[in-house]
């Protein structure tokens, strides 16, 4: 029974930490990434030899 309680506390703590980090980082990751295209993250201006 104690193991179940510890497991629940650890899971809830992990979710809380993940939520806090997600809240703090909201928009920062996306701001530093190029806009996605249908073929991935490459833009139409990219040439074959740049890959």
UniProtKB/TrEMBL annotation:
Chain segments carrying region Disordered: 32-51
Membrane found in the keyword field: yes
Keywords, ordered alphabetically: Membrane, Transmembrane, Transmembrane helix
Membrane-crossing residue ranges in chain numbering: 6-25
Name by which UniProt lists this protein: MetS family NSS transporter small subunit
UniProt source species: Nocardia seriolae
């Amino acid at each position: 029974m104690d193991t179940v309680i510890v497991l629940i506390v650890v899971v809830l703590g992990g979710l809380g930490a993940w939520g806090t980090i997600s809240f703090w980082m909201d928009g920062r990751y996306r701001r530093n990434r190029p806009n996605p295209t249908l073929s991935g993250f490459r833009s139409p201006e990219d040439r074959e030899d740049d890959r």
